[in-house]
Amino acid sequence: MALVATPLVATRVEAADDGALDTLKQQIQQLQWQVQQLQQKVADLESAKTNASVSASVATTSASQSVSPPPWSPAQSLTVTKAGPAYLNLSLVGDTVFGWSTTPNVEAIEGAHHDPSQRGFTLQGAELTLDGAVDPYFKALVTVPLVLEPGGATVVELEEAWVQTTSLPWNLQVKAGQMFANFGRQNPQHAHTWAFVDQPLVITRLLGADGLRNPGAQLSWLAPTPFYSEVMLGVFNSDGDTAASFRNDGSTDIHGGSPVSRGLRRPQDLMFVPRLAASFDLSDTQTLLVGLSGAFGPNNSGSNADTQIYGADIYWKWRPERAQAGFPFVSWQTEVLYRRYEAAERLAADNPLVTLPTDALHNWGFFSQLLWGFTRGWVAGLRGEFVNGVETSPDDLLRADRTRISPNLTWYPTEFSKLRLQYNYDHLQRLGDEHSVWLQLEFLIGAHAAHKF
Question: Is-contact 196 115, C-beta < 8 A?
Fold first, then answer.
């Protein structure tokens, strides 16, 4: 049976669909107990109506008293409030990392917002998550990460805040608010679900240090095919740091010119993110998921310049039929991204007396990672990456060709904590090699909503 993207229960590790099974069993037990209680109330009413004998009534009551609710499990949702069909769950995920790098300028090689940022200790984030059902027609989620930057400043950000339909006809679903764009597999993932300590280089360079996310809306359609297939179209604002390749003043790192002031003048100035995903069962033990994504919108190198980003991703997973708690397993994930950035005629950023000609800048890169869950709670990983630079400035860390190889080992004592040891070998064009070692600790308080397969 093909695996779908809609989360059902709280899980934690990447073999999370297996941890979800335990949670589902707990919920089934809870429902069975509630059904028994309802059946008992019906029996009591019928007994009173038909003036059943006292002995029969006593027997029924005795049977009812023998039914007790199942014990609470920490894998169940931590519901802080409930009113009819509406409820609110609360959780907190914390990630901290300790390590060392051969370069004292760690931020130059670890460019994502939730990457390690300095030698010694880094608090990558403490993410507060609120999720729940609004009513029979909508569910919602809000995530608020707190990040401690080098120097001690605390940054609070509204990472996601969206509402999503649950009962539209024709296999349609609408999601609206502040959210990650559904571009590829890696971009929509929160930092605590990454399989490695840091974000892939190509995601950071082409989509941004915070990934590609902004206020917007997304329409999804689950196609009526014999295998799982979903078509999605997201429409977002195209400005700000979370749209790094589009209407963002920081895009001068790409084109080397002075940005122009460019507001939202017409619908074409929004950012459009289409995606097509399909999943196939290759056998009883193997699943394959493939996807194609795009992101199209304006940039501020000129009044009519635009950016196009294309992506292809593939994910394969093997797990034996007799796996226990998801182990053992082997998974392989690869993403390839390509960006065409139209740099309009503009003034040079370092010399406003120089006019730069119109140009089209091309970047591409990929990452490929292999995970082996060789025994329960233990996962070994290996990731290889490459991203090319911009020809105009190969000596710039932000734009030089880069290669990185990262082996790691992760231990999950439970689904609520993990320890990860990772080594990074970085090769930077014309700048030499750097070596880094990171030890990451993560904890979860409460039950976190499940993430996509």
Answer: no
Q: What are phi and psi of 41, to 5 degrees?
A: -65, -40
**Other CB atoms within 10 A of residue 440 CB:** 24
The CA distances from residue 141 to 68, 217, 236, 237, in Å, are 33, 14, 18, 20
Flag whether pLDDT at 165 surpasses 80. yes
Q: Can you tell me which residue has the tokens 């297939």? A: 229
Which of 184, 185, 296 minimizes the C-alpha distance to 243? 296
| Rounded distance between C-alpha atoms, residue 295 and residue 321, angstroms | 38
Which one-letter amino acid corresponds to residue 251? S
Structure tokens at 36: 């028994």
pLDDT at 12: 40
Distance CA(132)–CA(129), nearest Å, equals 10
∠ CA 348-352-356, nearest 5°, is 35
The 8-class DSSP code of residue 152 comes to S
Residue 228 CB-half CA count within 13 A: 19
CA 8 to CA 386: how far, in whole Å? 35
Domain ranges of the chain: 83-446
Look at residue 368 and give its three-state secondary structure: strand
pLDDT in tens, 225-251: 999 999 999 999 999 999 999 998 776
**Signed CA dihedral, 12, 16, 17, 18: sign only:** negative
Q: Do residues 136 and 85 make contact, with C-beta atoms less than 8 angstroms apart?
A: yes
- Residue 100 DSSP SS3: strand
How many CB atoms neighbour CB 35 within 10 A?
Answer: 10
Torsion over CA: 116, 117, 121, 125 (sign): negative
Which pLDDT tens digit goes with each residue over 195-220? 999 999 999 999 999 999 999 999 99
Fold of 83-446: Porin (2.40.160)
Residue 451: pLDDT band with limits 50, 70, 90: low
Give the C-alpha distances (Å, rounded to integers) separating 358 from 43, 253, 296, 355, 391: 81, 16, 19, 10, 15
Mean pLDDT, the chain, as a whole number? 83
3-class DSSP state for residue 251?
helix
User: Side-chain half-sphere of 184: how many Cα atoms within 13 Å?
Assistant: 26
Whether the pLDDT of residue 394 is over 60: the answer is: no
Mean pLDDT on 283-301: 95
**pLDDT tens digits for 134-159?**
999 999 999 999 988 888 889 899 99
Look at the block and give the residue holding tokens 């999503």.
Answer: 164
